[in-house]
Amino acid sequence: MQFIDRAEIEVEAGKGGDGIVAFRREKYVPAGGPSGGNGGRGGSVIFVAEENLQTLLDFRYNHLFKAENGGRGGPNNRTGANGKDLIIEVPCGTVIYDAETGALLGDLIKAGEELRIAEGGKGGLGNQHFLSNRNRAPEYALPGLEGERKLLRLELKLLAEVGIIGLPNAGKSTLISSLSAARPKIADYPFTTLIPNLGVVRKPTGDGTVFADIPGLIEGAAEGAGLGHDFLRHIERTRVLLHLIDATSDDVIRDYNTIQQELQAYGRGLKERSQIIALNKIDAVARETVDLEALATQLNHLSYAPVFIISAVTRTGIEPMLQEIWRILDELNANEQVEVLG
Ligand SMILES: Nc1nc2c(ncn2[C@@H]2O[C@H](COP(=O)(O)OP(=O)(O)OP(=O)(O)O)[C@@H](O)[C@H]2O)c(=O)[nH]1
Ligand SMILES: [Mg+2]
């Protein structure tokens, strides 16, 4: 599933340092020549693509990015220090536009790719530079130039790898909020979620995977019931489906079948998509009356999918479920590479 993540930021390269006016004063040199040094260059703003970032979320909180100014020139022809470049890390796949003109400035696809987006200002020349036969003692120097400033729009197409699906109220939004930093609305009524919520879930290795909490599916969705087709279209581009079922339901198997039938009716390979089933809300199930293990076995026989017994609220059973998701994704990635090579 593809989403567009957007951010607007302002970048400002450093101003060049001013050149200065100075003259040599040495004990035995009565009229020293000009010796004012040049200003240093202002730092530039450089974007670099970074593998471990998945979203533009960080740019929501921070809008102005400024590189260091160049230092003033010094006496004895000393050039001022160059301002440090500001390196801004963005996720791979980020496209950068000039927000004022709409012009495409570049896109950063592969990790490590760089784009100089705003040039630092040149340092001003010190008075030693203006020494000539006609003017042995120039009394002037130049100020440093301003650094480039730009208003930028960043865009990133996000690919959600795992889609959390299920009937309304199954606990999908609760699950994504316990797995990631996403904070979607959660409520005890159906159709709380109207558009997909994204969350980045960290693997033990540190890199993130995007999960999408999809609005609840209902019977007839494939024919357009509820928010119907929209939901299924969202699901279409995810690689793994995490099918969440409310274990407190009076008929778990019926609930499972309802969703499966919609996936099948929609077609486009949804039913064959890798699937994991999770029986949720087990903290609220009366264990004496409901045999969760038997339900899990039954679901497994029906679906051939791995079944986990979890609580999105207490986080019981979450870890083994995540491990299985990582395993499936790794396997899909490995197969993809074989396809590319072969
Ligand atoms: N006891 C218990 N309640 C849960 C659990 N997970 C979710 N709930 C509750 O179930 C209700 C529905 O949760 P949501 O996360 O909004 O469900 P949803 O699947 O996103 O619902 P829609 O967006 O309407 O499709 C809320 O009252 C949650 O607090 C759980 O693990 N245990
Ligand atoms: Mg929801």
UniProtKB/TrEMBL annotation:
<dbReference type="Pfam" id="PF01018">
    <property type="entry name" value="GTP1_OBG"/>
</dbReference>
<dbReference type="GO" id="GO:0005737">
    <property type="term" value="C:cytoplasm"/>
</dbReference>
<dbReference type="GO" id="GO:0005525">
    <property type="term" value="F:GTP binding"/>
</dbReference>
<dbReference type="InterPro" id="IPR014100">
    <property type="entry name" value="GTP-bd_Obg/CgtA"/>
</dbReference>
<feature type="domain" description="Obg">
    <location>
        <begin position="1"/>
        <end position="159"/>
    </location>
</feature>
<comment type="function">
    <text>An essential GTPase which binds GTP, GDP and possibly (p)ppGpp with moderate affinity, with high nucleotide exchange rates and a fairly low GTP hydrolysis rate. Plays a role in control of the cell cycle, stress response, ribosome biogenesis and in those bacteria that undergo differentiation, in morphogenesis control.</text>
</comment>
<keyword id="KW-0342">GTP-binding</keyword>
<feature type="binding site">
    <location>
        <begin position="280"/>
        <end position="283"/>
    </location>
    <ligand>
        <name>GTP</name>
    </ligand>
</feature>
<keyword id="KW-0479">Metal-binding</keyword>
<feature type="binding site">
    <location>
        <position position="193"/>
    </location>
    <ligand>
        <name>Mg(2+)</name>
    </ligand>
</feature>
<dbReference type="InterPro" id="IPR031167">
    <property type="entry name" value="G_OBG"/>
</dbReference>
<feature type="binding site">
    <location>
        <begin position="311"/>
        <end position="313"/>
    </location>
    <ligand>
        <name>GTP</name>
    </ligand>
</feature>
<comment type="similarity">
    <text>Belongs to the TRAFAC class OBG-HflX-like GTPase superfamily. OBG GTPase family.</text>
</comment>
<feature type="binding site">
    <location>
        <begin position="166"/>
        <end position="173"/>
    </location>
    <ligand>
        <name>GTP</name>
    </ligand>
</feature>
<keyword id="KW-0547">Nucleotide-binding</keyword>
<protein>
    <recommendedName>
        <fullName>GTPase Obg</fullName>
        <ecNumber>3.6.5.-</ecNumber>
    </recommendedName>
</protein>
<dbReference type="InterPro" id="IPR036726">
    <property type="entry name" value="GTP1_OBG_dom_sf"/>
</dbReference>
<comment type="subunit">
    <text>Monomer.</text>
</comment>
<keyword id="KW-0460">Magnesium</keyword>
<dbReference type="Pfam" id="PF01926">
    <property type="entry name" value="MMR_HSR1"/>
</dbReference>
<feature type="binding site">
    <location>
        <begin position="213"/>
        <end position="216"/>
    </location>
    <ligand>
        <name>GTP</name>
    </ligand>
</feature>
<dbReference type="InterPro" id="IPR006169">
    <property type="entry name" value="GTP1_OBG_dom"/>
</dbReference>
<feature type="binding site">
    <location>
        <position position="173"/>
    </location>
    <ligand>
        <name>Mg(2+)</name>
    </ligand>
</feature>
<keyword id="KW-0963">Cytoplasm</keyword>
<dbReference type="InterPro" id="IPR006073">
    <property type="entry name" value="GTP-bd"/>
</dbReference>
<dbReference type="GO" id="GO:0042254">
    <property type="term" value="P:ribosome biogenesis"/>
</dbReference>
<dbReference type="InterPro" id="IPR006074">
    <property type="entry name" value="GTP1-OBG_CS"/>
</dbReference>
<dbReference type="GO" id="GO:0000287">
    <property type="term" value="F:magnesium ion binding"/>
</dbReference>
<feature type="binding site">
    <location>
        <begin position="191"/>
        <end position="195"/>
    </location>
    <ligand>
        <name>GTP</name>
    </ligand>
</feature>
<dbReference type="InterPro" id="IPR045086">
    <property type="entry name" value="OBG_GTPase"/>
</dbReference>
<feature type="domain" description="OBG-type G">
    <location>
        <begin position="160"/>
        <end position="330"/>
    </location>
</feature>
<dbReference type="GO" id="GO:0003924">
    <property type="term" value="F:GTPase activity"/>
</dbReference>
<dbReference type="InterPro" id="IPR027417">
    <property type="entry name" value="P-loop_NTPase"/>
</dbReference>
<keyword id="KW-0378">Hydrolase</keyword>
